[in-house]
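Hello support,

Our group uses your service weekly, and this is the first time we've seen a run hang past the timeout. The protein is Probable allantoicase. I'm not sure whether the cause is the sequence or the server load. Input pasted verbatim:
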Amino acid sequence: MTPTWTRLPDLASRAVGGSVVWANDELFAERENLITPAEAEYRPHTFGHRGQVYDGWETRRRREPGSDSAVVRLGLPGVVRGVVVDTAWFKGNYPPFASVEGTHALGYPSPEELTDWEPLVPKSPLGGDQKHYFDVDVERRYTHVRLTMYPDGGIARLRVHGSPVPDPDLLVPGALDLAALENGAAIAGCSNDFFGKPANLIAPGQAGSMGEGWETARRRDDGNDWVEVTLAAPGVVTLAELDTTHFKGNAPGWASIRGRDARKDPDDWFELLPRTRLQPDTRHRFRVEGPEATHARLDIYPDGGMARMRLFGSLTDAGLDQLTARYADLTR
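Update from on-call engineer: The timeout came from a worker crash unrelated to the input. Re-ran successfully.
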């Protein structure tokens, strides 16, 4: 059974700004493939000057003792809840063992300057052409992870699922996207995610295709679909952006946004944006007003897909204190 933490964002993905900053060897297949958002592919009998072309990271056969490693800078630094090491299509050339370590670094160090590596996944056995799921139970913020395989071979993908933790020194409390993953927001629930994960809705950057947004199945009843977001911290939303870019024949016809303050009454929803008509393939922006909120709910009518939702506003003093305290607790 797939672990529930796989529904959390992939902190290492290229889609959220991750980068493979170093590897000691990548003779057969490039290290950058490790964090490609799409599943690994295989094209039979596709040979280059270095042999069969693999959609993954593959090192040469070692003729001396040792191991091969790659270092990934997380696009979204945060707490790691689980790691997926995927050996898809590597059948006679996968590593028999692998481990994963993490570190927290300030600023933008070079790979050589990274120190204080801590174990996230101990040296563990791997099989060929399969996904390996490893739970991580460490309450600490990480900025980089190091994947090591013993002794050599190929790994298709590395997924590092977890909860983003922003650096409060890099936030502007009076002008902030309160619904952004990179600022600490998270998906609290949704009605349907058949075609696209709701976490895509609050991911960094612009969606490159429909597959990078949130999309529901076609409804055959009188209801509507929705997604609820836990805001980065308590704040006041003043501008909402609903982006249906790339959704042309499947954009919602209408949408509305509500907020609530779970610290006071978790069942007391208030209106931020009334039910409003949307256009396909369009970036909509709306001025909104409302009291302090800890959560927001987007309702789409009746169903469909949306690329991004942004909820710009300001943190309350309590909200900034909350983010600052969490960062300090996870970086001690």
